[in-house]
Amino acid sequence: MRRWNNIIWLGCVFLIAGCNQPSQENEIQVGETTAEVFRSRCSGCHKPSGSTVPNAPSLISLAQKNQSTIRFSLTNGTMRTQAAGLSTAQIHRLSEYISQQDVDYKPAAKDFCLEPSISFTDVSVSKWAFDERNTGVAGDTNINSQNVSRLILKWAFELPGVAEARSQPVITRDTVFIAATTSGELFALDRHTGCIKWHSHAMAPLRSALTLGNIHGRPTLFFGNSKAETSAVDARNGKWLWTTSVGMSEYSIQTGAVVFWNGALYVPVSLNEVALAQNPEHECCTAHGLVRKLDAASGKILWTRHMTSDAQPTGKSRHGTRTWGPSGAPVWSTPTIDVERGAIYVGTGQNASAPATELSDSVVALSMNNGAILWHFQATRGDTYNNACSDFPKGANCPKWIGPDFDFGASIILSRNDRGEGILLAGQKSGDVYALNPDKQGEVLWRTAVGSGSALGGVHWGMAATDNLVFAGSNDPDFPIPGYRANPGLAALDLNTGKVRWRFDVERGCQTGLMDYLQRDEIYPACSYYYAFSAALTVSNDLVFAPALDGTVRAFSTPSGHLRWKYDTAKNFDTVSGTNAHGGAMDNSGVMFSGDMAFMQSGYDLFGQLPGNVFLAFELKP
Ligand code: HEC
After folding, report:
1. Nearest alpha carbon, ligand 1 atom 29
2. What is the pLDDT of residue 418?
3. Gap from CA of 202 to ligand 1 centroid (Å)
4. CB-neighbour burial class of residue 522 (10 A; exposed 0-12, middle 13-18, buried 19+)
């Protein structure tokens, strides 16, 4: 098996002067041409380690992706404009040249369980953030501040062909369902040993957490992919049931999880055009966010709510390329169900081009029945931004009025205050946490800043809320921007007033080496500013678990904020199949719980963060 041979490879990159290409077995066959294509078209942004361009993964990260993921990116994904004009054969050779992975992943016979039966009577985790209100509070867990010191690693599983882990498992009493998202491999694993019960392969890279629902007695997994397709798979055996296209454009993608409720699915749709806009040749921008309701049994679309009207031509960029708008307002977050009010809540992101619209950077309440807008709360007006704005000098597609890029990416939490009244909690990339009144059209009850905010700062994937506290992470990368003071950390706010009850200020933590002779911040210079809380927070009894971008996961006492447990995942792990996998940045999903066990994934190379490909199972030692 062609493994991620980091020792030889990094040795080449760092220790031999002038050796700035991946040394590959197939270099002789592909010859100069592929290397030249890479040098002229790709190497300007994808450096051997780290990157000079914001957001671009290093070559080390790209090598960890499998060939089909790279090909997808070059033909249908975020790199399609960079690869425009290349022939199919050239794209094929380029993916061979970059990837250090096997062409086709196939689990070995020895990795399968001898006893592959699956029980669905006891389900610990069936959806993102544990419940339909997205509280982030685990329902089935024994782990607490008294016993967490006994929480130890039980097994590690390699997520094959990926550099980023972006799923969240579904967990029953005997089985863990998990996706190696970008490579499209889907697994049912034994909860106690990590052996494989079934394995299935998706045709396009997956992008969302897994959701479990029951259709006429059939346990079914639902998820979304990079082409904005929602799929249903039989959870008993991995058989594909249906796939529905839910996008409005070739630039639509799915990121937030599909929500299963009462036989229907609520599907959030986002877009990759924000990244494509970095290319001045791209006609920016035409895609926008939306939410659809689907029949869970058939995949039939029941209603659609668009977050902007259709884009019209708006002129030309200084590069001479046609421009379009309105666009953007993507729905990154997993919808929240409010049974009592017949509503669902989603957060939206910024507009990708001018003109700005009223549903961007908003909390939007929709009717569950027909998708009508019940009310919306816009936190930031006039926010037009795409990745061309992160270039220096600004790219031609960067809008004239450059907004701050303050999405609501975290799922909205539905809770109650101490008078029993409904309260919605929303965290924004601005670093603000808002409490809104769902009975008064989203009227602001309080607002507390937990971070300074930026395009990659503030609140990201998810907050958590108990009966009286709200936990919010601030991701604020410590970029050396004049006049900007990053404020990364974790805050516990009083649910009724928004007052800060306690706070943990996170500090740089790049000391642990992935390898013994190189420090992590030498391999990944970006680690020096990516170390805060982007992943979703989750609560297990009196503990809040906070995974961080430097690979550290911490558990704090919910009432006091005292650190009770800490584990560094940015290292190598021996996996159940005998391979060597490694962790990296912890982003996206939070720690998941089931009885005496906790599950987490590590590795997330987007934005130049630490890549990784490991899924970890912990258990309370008796
Ligand atoms: C102008 C800078 C730039 C150039 C040139 C460029 N890239 Fe990228 N690349 C990026 C950025 C930025 C990202 C991260 C995009 C995102 O997902 O937000 C990226 C992401 C990727 C990814 C990961 C995408 C995924 O979905 O996992 C691959 C693979 C990739 N690039 C390959 C290439 C190849 C091959 C070339 C040359 C044909 C190339 N890139 C040229 C900037 C660039």
Report:
1. 70
2. 94
3. 22
4. middle
Residue 31 has pLDDT above 50, yes or no: no
Q: What is the pLDDT of residue 29?
A: 37
Contacts of 258 (CB under 8 A, 6+ apart): 208, 211, 222, 223, 224, 230, 265, 266, 267
Number of CB atoms found within 10 A of residue 7's CB: 10
For ligand 1, atom 16, the nearest C-alpha belongs to 275
Of residues 563, 573, 519, 528, the one with CA closest to residue 543: 563
Note whether 30 and 93 are within 8 A (CB): yes
Judge contact between 191 and 170, C-beta under 8 A. Answer: no
Reported as half-sphere exposure (CB side, CA atoms, 13 A), residue 72 has a value of 20
Residue with token string 């970890």? 616
Q: Is 327 in the pocket of ligand 1 (CB under 6 A)?
A: no
Gap between the Cα atoms of 616 and 569, Å rounded = 9
Q: Is the pLDDT of residue 335 over 70?
A: yes
Could you tell me the two tokens for 400? 């004239």
User: Is 314's C-beta closer than 6 angstroms to any atom of ligand 1?
Assistant: no
For atom 2 of ligand 1, which residue has the closest CA? 45
The CA 56 to ligand 1 mean position distance, Å, reads 6
**Torsion angles phi and psi, residue 234, rounded to 5:** -65, 120
Instruction: Give the residue among 604, 554, 550 at the shortest CA–CA distance from 181.
Output: 604
For a ligand 1 pocket test, name from 53, 76, 79, 390 the mutation site with the most ligand atoms within 8 angstroms of its C-beta. 79
The per-residue pLDDT for range 108-147, each reduced to its tens digit, is 999 999 989 999 999 999 999 999 999 999 999 999 999 9
Which atom of ligand 1 has the smallest separation from the CA of 164?
27
Contact indicator for 208, 256 with CB cutoff of 8 Å:
yes
Of 46, 392, 604, 613, the residue with max ligand 1 atoms within 8 A of its CB, to mutate for a pocket test, comes to 46
CA dihedral (416, 495, 442, 263) positive or negative: negative
pLDDT at 557: 98
Ligand 1 neighbourhood includes 46 CB (under 6 angstroms): yes
Provide the pLDDT confidence category of residue 24 given band limits of 50, 70 and 90: very low
Q: Which residue in 54, 28, 41 sits closest to 608, CA to CA?
A: 54
Q: Ligand 1 centre and the CA of 394: distance in Å?
A: 18
79 within ligand 1 shell (Cβ under 6 A):
yes
Closest Cα partner for 535 from 485, 480, 610?
Answer: 610
* pLDDT tops 90 at residue 35: no
The pLDDT of 329-345, averaged and rounded, is: 98
User: Is the minimum distance from the CB of 183 to ligand 1 under 6 angstroms?
Assistant: no
CB distance 281 to ligand 1 below 6 Å: no
CB distance 57 to ligand 1 below 6 Å? yes
What does each C-alpha distance from 190 to 113, 119, 196, 619 come to in angstroms? 7, 11, 6, 14
Integer Cα distance of 256 and 600 in angstroms: 18
